[in-house]
Write a structure and sequence with these properties.
The complex is a heterodimer of chains A (268) and B (111). By secondary structure, chain A is α/β, with parallel strands linked by helices. Chain A is built from 8 helices and 10 strands. The longest helix of chain A is centred in the middle third of the chain and has 17 residues. Chain B has one domain. The chains are: A alpha/beta (268), B mainly beta (111).
């Protein structure tokens, strides 16, 4: 019998790959490397289901059932004269479990299907820094209603449990996500509403208060503009049963995004 | 390919206007621009096509209506072959399948 071992909420900014490659000190990079080590050496996961916050279909939920996945560059590249550095990543897929996730989601009444998509940076950036070398299944985060994202997480867990796989769920995303406010001289306190928002969500997640995400102050939510509307956390709620998370790293307001890294246990 | 030097790709996402723009050339060297101005509920896109100085035309773009022979984007309807670099083709392909890239022109909300 298969098992969903853990779920992770992680940052996905493309700069993390650059810092990782350059050896630039960054707690978020360290946290990703530590998660990767745990997934490979302690959990011994056979497959990672990764829900990119940049795969935002409107019509329904999708899984890429391919036997092999390659990445594509969906983030702005620096001009060539400034050292343009496109990154890449490849991983084998798991068609059998991918199709089982589709069937599991259908049983929950979700509009679900398959697409040949690959790995955008929202998926491959953290996996690359984590040095994930097992099978990978890309799935959508979508623009669907929050409750459907909870069911999507449940569907993923059910499919894994009915399989023979040891799996983890990686749901990347940022809390505050205001790239329009990016400045060279920014500090952690630069965008106070973003900081307030991040601290509030971190408090809720570490206490397992997922339901309170739905009642967040709308003005604060709008100001923070969290990536994918916090859907990665709704997905995690469904997949884990809403267990309290453990904050592994919070890097504050860097590049006007709230880089928080959590791990979530799975309810028995 | 007016913005490929600045943005590193012939495909950019303008989050302020919530639209994506593809820039390439026909095999005859004529400039082509496709603006994807709206993502519909079925994940198709309302698109505006400009080929050279011809009058712009509008069509609905579906992900399955595009093929990617080497170094090219092949639209089925309207039938048109566009030359682009591989980064641009992959970014365009991803967008037609539901990707919202990190915006080249950011805004205060996403997507």
């Amino acid at each position: 019998m298969g098992k969903l071992l853990k779920a992770y909420f992680v940052p996905n900014g493309s700069y993390l790959m650059q810092e990782d490659e350059d050896g630039f000190p960054d707690p978020s990079v360290d946290a990703l490397r530590n998660i990767g080590r745990e997934v490979r050496e302690e959990l011994k996961a056979e497959v990672v289901v990764v829900a990119s916050p940049h795969w935002q279909t409107k019509s329904g939920f999708y899984v890429d059932p391919g036997e092999h996945h390659t990445s594509f560059t969906d983030y702005p590249l620096l001009p060539a004269k400034w050292g343009r550095r496109p990154f890449s990543y490849e991983a084998d897929g798991d068609p059998e479990l991918a199709l089982a996730i589709v069937e599991s989601a259908k049983a929950k009444g979700l509009n679900v299907g398959t697409k040949t998509y690959g790995l955008d940076h929202g998926a491959f950036c953290p996996l690359k820094v984590m040095r994930i070398d097992c099978k990978v299944i890309p799935v959508t985060i979508t623009q669907r209603p929050f409750q459907e994202c909870v069911f999507w997480g449940e569907a993923i867990r059910d499919a894994v449990q009915k399989s023979s796989r040891r799996a983890v769920l990686v749901a990347p995303g940022n809390l505050t996500h205001r790239l329009d406010l990016r400045h060279d001289d920014e500090t952690e306190a630069y965008f106070d509403k973003g900081k307030q928002f991040d601290e509030l969500v971190i408090d809720l997640m570490t206490r397992g208060k997922f339901q309170q995400l739905e009642t967040l102050d709308q003005d604060l939510l709008k100001a923070a503009a969290p990536e994918a509307g916090l859907r990665p956390l709704y997905l995690i709620r469904g997949a884990t049963g809403g267990q309290p998370g453990r904050l592994l790293c919070y890097h504050g307001m860097k590049y006007s995004v709230g880089d928080a890294t959590f791990e979530f246990p799975i309810a028995a | 390919m007016a913005f490929s030097q600045e943005f590193g790709s012939g495909f950019i996402y303008d989050a302020k206007q919530k639209k994506a723009i593809l820039s390439g050339k026909t095999e005859d060297g004529i400039e082509v621009e496709i603006q994807l101005i709206r993502r519909n509920e079925d994940d198709s896109h309302d698109a505006v096509l400009q080929v050279g100085k011809e009058k712009e035309s509008r069509f609905v773009l579906r992900g399955d209506d595009v093929e990617y022979p080497a170094g090219r984007i092949q639209l089925k309807n309207p039938p048109l072959r566009i030359l682009v670099d591989s980064t641009t083709a992959a970014k365009f392909r991803g967008f037609t399948k539901g990707n919202i890239p990190t915006p080249d022109i950011p805004a205060d909300s996403l997507p």
